[in-house]
């Protein structure tokens, strides 16, 4: 079945730094979603992408739908302590269901 | 707008016992999903309902897991009997079908520990 890979698995950054993470697959998708999950909570939707090449922002977050439709990228600018958590990508292809990646764990050092 | 509600938040049982989880989706959301999230992994879809009908249950271990959404609103997921490997967080999500894709909104989850 379809599988997603997320890179990096975990990252430690200083407050104020920018963050980049990506999600890749061997299959193409029609939609990419990015979620953030805090400890003890369910994932919260951050950004949804529907078209190859699309670039969408949500505050300090920017995500892009890769041109090949097999990848997506998430950037966080000027990180703050509350950015700590696990970031999941999820891919969707018509007629199938969402597939989630294994997550990128972000830690922000003061 | 109230979010997706789940109960209980935590459950500890012994293997071979039974357990049930409850989910109430966001009002008006026709689609309901149950996911299993094992520690350190992303959520894995178990079952998807559209109103009270099952759309996809291909990854539901049907020998021990069952789910229902009788009136097309709230839903129950049951495990009988539980195994050690069922220890996980069980997430419920709901979505309102639109022209694009079902953007899913998640509940807080039920953390199950099987001893």
Brief account:
The complex is a heterodimer of chains A (110) and B (115). With 110 residues, chain A is mostly beta strands.
Task: Label this structure with key terms.
heterodimer; A: 110 residues; mainly beta; 6-stranded mixed sheet; B: 115 residues; globular
Description:
The complex is a heterodimer of chains A (110) and B (115). Chain A is an all-beta fold and 110 residues long. Helix content of chain A is 0%, strand content 55%. Chain A has strands at residues 4-7, 10-14, 19-25, 31-37, 44-49, 55-58, 61-65, 71-76, 85-92, 99-100, 104-109. In chain A, the strands form two sheets. In chain A, strands 2, 4, 5, 9, 10 and 11 form a six-stranded mixed β-sheet that branches. Chain A is globular, with a radius of gyration of 13 Å. The model of chain A has no long low-confidence stretch (mean pLDDT 93). The N and C termini of chain B lie far apart (37 Å). Chain B is mainly beta. In chain B, the strands form two sheets. In chain B, strands 2, 4, 5, 6, 9, 10 and 11 form a seven-stranded mixed β-sheet that branches. In chain B, strands 1-3-8-7 form a four-stranded antiparallel β-sheet, with no helix packed on it. Chain B is built from no helices and eleven strands. Chain B is globular and about 40 Å long. Chain B has strands at 5-7, 10-13, 19-24, 31-37, 44-50, 53-56, 65-68, 75-79, 88-95, 105-106, 110-114. Classes of the chains: A mainly beta (110), B mainly beta (115). The interface between A and B is medium-sized, with 22 and 21 residues.
Question: Topology, pairings included?
Answer:
The complex is a heterodimer of chains A (110) and B (115).
Chain A (H helix, E strand, L loop, with lengths): L3 E4 L2 E5 L4 E7 L5 E7 L6 E6 L5 E4 L2 E5 L5 E6 L8 E8 L6 E2 L3 E6 L1
Parallel strand pairs in A: 2-11
Antiparallel strand pairs in A: 1-3, 3-8, 4-5, 4-9, 6-7, 7-8, 9-10, 9-11
Chain B lengths: L4 E3 L2 E4 L5 E6 L6 E7 L6 E7 L2 E4 L8 E4 L6 E5 L8 E8 L9 E2 L3 E5 L1
Parallel strand pairs in B: 2-11
Antiparallel strand pairs in B: 1-3, 3-8, 4-5, 4-9, 5-6, 7-8, 9-10, 9-11
């Amino acid at each position: 079945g379809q599988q997603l890979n997320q890179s990096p698995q975990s990252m430690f950054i200083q407050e104020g730094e920018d963050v980049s993470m990506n999600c890749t697959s061997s299959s193409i998708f029609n939609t990419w979603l990015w979620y953030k999950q805090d400890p003890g909570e369910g994932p919260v939707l951050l950004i949804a992408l529907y078209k190859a090449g699309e670039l969408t922002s949500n505050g300090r977050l920017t995500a892009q739908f890769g041109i090949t439709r097999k990848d997506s990228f998430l950037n966080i600018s000027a990180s703050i302590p509350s950015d700590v958590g696990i970031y999941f990508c999820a891919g969707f292809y018509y007629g199938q269901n969402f597939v989630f990646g294994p997550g990128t764990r972000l830690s922000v050092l003061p | 707008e109230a979010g997706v509600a789940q109960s209980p938040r935590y459950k500890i049982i012994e293997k071979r016992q039974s357990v049930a989880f409850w989910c109430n989706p966001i009002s008006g959301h026709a689609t309901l999903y149950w996911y299993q999230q094992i520690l350190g992994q992303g959520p894995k879809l178990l079952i998807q309902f559209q109103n009270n009908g099952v759309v996809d249950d291909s990854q539901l271990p049907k020998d021990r897991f069952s789910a229902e959404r009788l009136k097309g609103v709230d839903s129950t997921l049951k495990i009988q009997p539980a195994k050690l490997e069922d220890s996980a967080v069980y997430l419920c999500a709901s979505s309102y079908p639109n022209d694009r894709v079902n953007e899913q909104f998640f509940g807080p989850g039920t953390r199950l520990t099987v001893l």
